[in-house]
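Hi team,

As requested, here is the filled-out complex form for the S-adenosylmethionine run. I kept the field names the same as last time so the parser does not choke. Let me know if anything looks off before we queue the next batch.

— J.
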Amino acid sequence: MPKFEPKDRFYNKAKEEGYRARSAFKLQAIDEKYRLLKSGMKVLDLGAAPGSFLQYISEKIGDKGIAVGVDLQKIDDLELENVRTYQGDIFDEELYKKIVQENGFNQFDLITSDLAPKTTGIPFVDGNASLNLNLQVVEVARRYLRRGGGLVMKILSGFNEGDLIGRAKKNFRQVKKFRPQAVRKSSAESYIVCLGKM
Ligand SMILES: C[S@@+](CC[C@H](N)C(=O)[O-])C[C@H]1O[C@@H](n2cnc3c(N)ncnc32)[C@H](O)[C@@H]1O
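And here is what came back:
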């Protein structure tokens, strides 16, 4: 088993560059490969706390874009003009009504999800919890992602990922799996990148 290194090079890089978490470099790698984020985009980030995805997204979409972050945890104010945050559960319908009402639109250009369930250490239980979150993410994308838009979601590899990929393929023209370098070697995490919502 590779040694767990809590303070590896991505941890240090995040500190140096002012990111709240090393996860920002995972999104950066995905973005550099698939060219997802562009100036002026409206982006919904699910499972956004503490906020490093939002920090990266904010830079890329610029002052004409809007990033909306959602998490069960409170996201401490990022002090970024183009970022709005909501504390809530991705399964709560009222949350989306509030987001739509307060922001004045109901279609995003891109949805990102770094959602992770509270882990138990029992692979089957954690894998299923992650799958359930992602099935909901696909449902959110079906409703709140514009035609042609993209979706990025974190998965735990090996746990019913076929079901999820199958569901994604019904809604997107291209579905790819990608494991950024910033994912720890010991982690089962990967990302599914879905392009061209139908
Ligand atoms: C790995 S963290 C996200 C890190 C974040 N992308 C960043 O860059 O700072 C995963 C998050 O998913 C959130 N989460 C898990 N289940 C959720 C749910 N049902 N609704 C909203 N957020 C949830 C957790 O509270 C946790 O903050």
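Two things worth flagging: The longest strand covers residues 145-156. Strands lie at 42-46, 66-71, 83-87, 108-113, 145-156, 172-178, 189-197.

Thanks,
J.
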